[in-house]
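Notes on consecutive records. When two proteins share a document, each keeps its own sequence and its own token line. Never mix them. Below: protein one.
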Amino acid sequence: MGATGLEPARFGFREIRDLGESVLVLGHLDLTARTTGITFDEEVGQLGTFRDGKIATVHDYLSHREALEAAGLRE
């Protein structure tokens, strides 16, 4: 068993949006705990910002709506 007690995570990209100085990724995350079998199967989002051609920040969100709002967008 790994240190986290989780099976390998599966992340699927649904959409990637180039927003100029940032990038928005909308997807789906599927995790299962090895010992309990509890599953986490949810949509997720990430918003990354760039400065001088490098990643400056990355923020994770537990819904597409939250990620879109953080990017100043709507569904």
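Protein two starts on the next line and is unrelated to protein one.
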Amino acid sequence: MLKDKGLVRFEDNPDHKRAKLVVPTEQGREVLDQLEEIQIAWSNTVSKEFSTVELDRVFHTMKALGGKI
């Protein structure tokens, strides 16, 4: 569990009496930053395999799908 690993903590939620907010700890924020760097490197590598037209088509398709949720 993320809390047991010291990556998140629970805080009171002013908008809800029972549901807690899940907040990253400093260590959790560091892990998220590392994951973001890995994801950026991956997406840059993968995107090189596609043309601008193909990527634009995917972007518009994903945007349209997001509007259906």
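For the record: The mean pLDDT is 95.
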